[in-house]
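The authors assume throughout that readers already know how a fold can be written as discrete tokens. The format is easy to grasp once an entry is in front of the reader. For illustration, here is how one protein appears when written out as sequence plus structure tokens:
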Amino acid sequence: AYDRVRSVVEAQFEAFRDDDYLRARSYASAEIQRQFTTAAFERMVKGGYPGIAFWQKVSFGAVADNGHEAIIEVSVTSRRGHTRSFRYLLIREGESINVIANVSGGSAAQ
């Protein structure tokens, strides 16, 4: 479960690094994709989560997975050197696809 959950979040971070918001948005839940066009998704991430949009280092912590949803702790260091902790919520959509449904946090990492 850990590797599956981590791989989804890691793939989205790689898309952010490549400035490929069409691909980054593809890892989001259907609900998020309905709410945001690719351009709006890019504006939301860059405006609301600049450390994620312009990350330098990402590390993954604990995963809790009940089979329907999973939470993974993610520590992100921005290009400016600020480290923040986030909690990613992934949900199962379709047969076995885990997608990102929510990102919370952003407080300074301890």
